[in-house]
Amino acid sequence: MPELPEVEVVRRGLLRWVAHRTVADAEVLHPRAVRRHLAGPDDFTHRLRGHRMGTPSRRGKYLWLPLEDTGQAVLAHLGMSGQLLVQPHSAPDEKHLRVRVRFTDGPAGDTELRFVDQRTFGGLSLHDTTPDGLPDVIAHIARDPLDPLFDEDAFHRALRRKRTTVKRALLDQSLISGVGNIYADEALWRARIHYERPTATLTRPRTLVLLGHVRDVMNAALAVGGTSFDSLYVNVNGESGYFDRSLDAYGREGLPCRRCGTPIRRRPWMNRSSYYCPRCQRAPRAVS
DNA sequence: CAGAGATCCTGCAAGC
DNA sequence: TGCTTGCAGGATCTCT
Q1: Among A19, A47, A120, A258, which lies 20 to 30 A Cα-Cα from A33?
Q2: In Å, what is the separation between the CA of A224 and the C1' of B7?
Q3: Taking Cα atoms as reference points, which of A68, A97, A77, A56 lies closest to residue A4?
Q4: Nucleotide nearest to A79 (CA to C1')
Q5: Taking the complete model, does pTM exceed 0.90, yes or no?
Q6: Looking at the domain that runs over A150-274, which CATH code has it been given?
Q7: Superfamily name with CATH number, domain A2-136
Q8: Strand B contacted by A35 CB (< 7 A)
Q9: Measured from the CB, is A163 under 7 Å from any atom of strand B?
């Protein structure tokens, strides 16, 4: 499940293999993959044709490739199971191939870009960019914690203002972007904070410590090329990450906490799961 | 208006 | 064996 580190690995792959190449042709094999491009698949492919890709950028889990001389950018979100693969033309189509982009030239002239997505939560679309280069439809996405301009004070003030719980806040992309279910559980475990702690109870030092752990766990994942829990995720060249081997909480139900040995618990939460150590991460009040 | 919950989608695994 | 059910979950929509 791609979160910020995985998306960043993909961005670096695009920088190496796709940036500065000119689109010869694009092909949409499943309309749902471009559903956020409201003008439809034909408009999507038509607008790509003949334009050169610029340098890829990322905010949180979104990444985009500027289309030179158009004022627009190709926006990508991998959703749950999306992959951007650079493949030789000769490679057989993947089972869940949704979009193919061919190029006229470039450093890897015998390759094409493929968007592959089993569960079709992800997709590609074209959008106007704001003066700072951001696609207009993601203006509401907050900066991510690896962004040098991320505002820690503003984040903490927002937490104090909210009447919600800390994990919900970590997953709220308008407060802090790039954090998904896996790294939220990992950062909370490292910070010894229960996922249902009300955000209004966090002191400023506690918020800063939590942010530090969010960054640490993301940087650790980045260092090994992203994580892959269910093998659906691979990076832009098809390599899996290895970070899943060093997860401390997520997916470890019943296994001993690496700090205190208490079995890790899994609790249903927002149609998904939260993993935590019941001893290290004490519940606030009546929550079990 | 903020916050909580439902929903989309597919493949795999578990259980009967 | 073959069916049903549950689970994975980011972003968006709907409801309270």
Answers
A1: A19
A2: 34
A3: A77
A4: C10
A5: yes
A6: 1.10.8.50
A7: MutM-like, N-terminal (3.20.190.10)
A8: no
A9: yes
**Average pLDDT, whole number, for chain A?**
90
**Å: A270 CA to B4 C1':** 9
Residue A163 token pair: 């009447």
**CB of A157 nearer than 7 A to strand B:** no
Residue A230 pLDDT exceeds 50: no
Q: What letter represents residue A205's amino acid?
A: P
SS3 A246: helix
- For residue A261, pLDDT beyond 90: yes
Give CA–CA dist A283/A243, Å, rounded.
Answer: 28
Of the pLDDT bands very low, low, confident and very high (cuts 50, 70, 90), residue A229 is: very low
**Residue A3 pLDDT:** 87
Residue in the structure block whose two tokens are 């500065």: A20
pLDDT value for A46: 97
Residue A242 scores a pLDDT above 80:
no
Residue list for the binding site of A for DNA: 96, 119, 162
